[in-house]
Amino acid sequence: MKASFEEKITHLKQVIRHIQAELEEQRNKRDIVAPYLNTFLEYKNVKQLNRAMLVELVEKISIHEDKNLTIEFKFGDIYEQIANK
Length: 85
Known about the structure:
Blueprint: H1 2-42, H2 51-57, E1 58-63, E2 69-73, H3 76-83
Antiparallel strand pairs: 1-2
């Protein structure tokens, strides 16, 4: 009987460690997403692009030979993670 309780205790300790690891992972994700959301929400009702917005939100703009543009946003990867959930 004592062995059974010890097995349950060991199992529950493993479950607790797993849950704590997941919680820490979620906290880290939140810390990454928070600056993105704050920056993005700052400009949510803006009607016209200005230099300050461009500097804060855009990493790189490429102009191709066929005159097409490619815009890389600073928070593009985070946006992808949020959009795909």
